[in-house]
Design brief:
53% of the residues lie in helices and 13% in strands. It is of the alpha/beta class and 292 residues long. It folds into 2 domains: 160 residues, 3-Layer(aba) Sandwich (Rossmann fold); 118 residues, N-(1-d-carboxylethyl)-l-norvaline Dehydrogenase, domain 2 (Orthogonal Bundle). Helix 10 crosses helix 13. The longest helix has 29 residues. The structure holds NADP nicotinamide-adenine-dinucleotide phosphate.
Length: 292
């Protein structure tokens, strides 16, 4: 990649903050924009430019990376007179790393193509602790040569890039990965609830899992403290998984496919959300199993 490469990063939430920091630490020239400006202070202290609007950021960047909540947030940063798209010129690149719908992603890819902007569809697998360690798995959609050209940027945030095909293939693969995360989380919560209901200490469940060559997996270990302490500081907020479960069900319905277990998981996530747990880690579903 020819240097200097100016990266504009939009969305300094749980994931974006760590990802932008890793880009800065890898030596890229990083400028940032976040809707809540207070969250940009640590980047300003490091000498990074803080843009007042997405448009101002885009004007001075070769590549814009977005890591925002959902489609409404993407519209808010891309569209309108202060958005990225009107300021972006041909030859620039937009890399979306947020989890959006495949349909939205395909339309965005088309919009970028018409404007001469390169587009990469690069959502990520891995939550906050893995983002902090630059250990994300990047699920890449778009032109293969663009993915290869931008791989130094992507590798500053992740341990691996899995190329999925043209956009929205990265997003499609992301939904498949998150289906597993959603079901593994609810399976773990139900198993711990069943242990407690039978008078067992849930710790015993983790002791047994640790000894099992088949079931001793990193994801269960990452959620152990949440389950044992019944405390759910967010690594991946429940509201985002609820969005993703609905995206999975919509994609399946479009293909005439039923996903009965995912549909049940969506109901439990929705109950947890309605009980006020949207901002907690999705493992908070444990609480909702024993609540009305
Ligand atoms: P988050 O902590 O909730 O951060 C969301 C970011 O989006 C914040 O910077 C927020 O700005 C911004 N935003 C929201 N609405 C906006 C709007 N209307 N206009 C402008 N900016 C807006 O979420 P996250 O955990 O970092 O996740 C970001 C994306 O990655 C989501 O699509 C999520 O599904 C996906 N993801 C998350 C994980 C995970 O484990 N956490 C893993 C993989 C993928 P403010 O600071 O102003 O609120």
């Amino acid at each position: 990649m020819t240097m200097p490469h100016r990266i504009g990063f939009i969305g300094l939430g749980l994931m974006g903050r760590a990802m932008a920091m890793n880009l800065h630490n890898a030596g890229f020239r990083v400028a940032v924009y976040n809707r809540t400006r207070a969250d940009t202070t640590e980047f300003a202290d490091l000498g990074c430019t803080v843009a007042a609007t997405p448009k101002a950021l885009a004007r001075n960047s070769d590549t814009i990376i977005t890591m925002v909540s959902d489609m409404a947030a993407m519209d808010a940063v891309l569209e309108g007179p202060e958005g990225v798209l009107p300021a972006f010129t041909g030859g620039s690149t937009l890399i979306n790393m947020s989890t959006l719908s495949p349909e939205y992603t395909a339309a965005l890819a088309k919009k970028c193509f018409i404007s001469g902007v390169e587009f990469l569809d690069c959502p990520v697998a891995g939550s906050k602790p893995l983002a902090e360690k630059a250990q994300l798995v990047i699920l890449a959609g778009g032109k293969k040569e663009t993915v290869e050209k931008l791989s130094p940027v992507l590798k500053a945030m992740g341990r691996a890039i899995v190329y999925a095909g043209q956009a929205p293939a990265g997003t499609a693969l992301k939904l498949c990965m998150n289906l597993l995360v959603a079901q593994m989380t609810t399976a773990l919560a139900e198993s711990a609830a069943l242990a407690a209901a039978q008078g067992l200490d849930p710790q015993l469940l983790f002791s047994a899992l640790e000894e099992s060559p088949a079931l001793n997996c990193g994801y269960f270990r990452m959620k152990k403290d949440n389950i044992i302490n019944r405390d759910f500081p967010p690594a991946f907020q429940l509201k985002h998984m609820l969005k993703d479960a609905r995206l999975m069900l919509a994609e399946a319905a479009r293909a005439g496919l039923e996903l009965p277990v995912t549909a049940a998981v969506e109901k439990l996530l929705a109950k947890s959300y309605n009980n006020g747990y949207g901002d907690k880690d999705l493992s908070v579903v444990l609480r909702s199993l024993t609540e009305k």
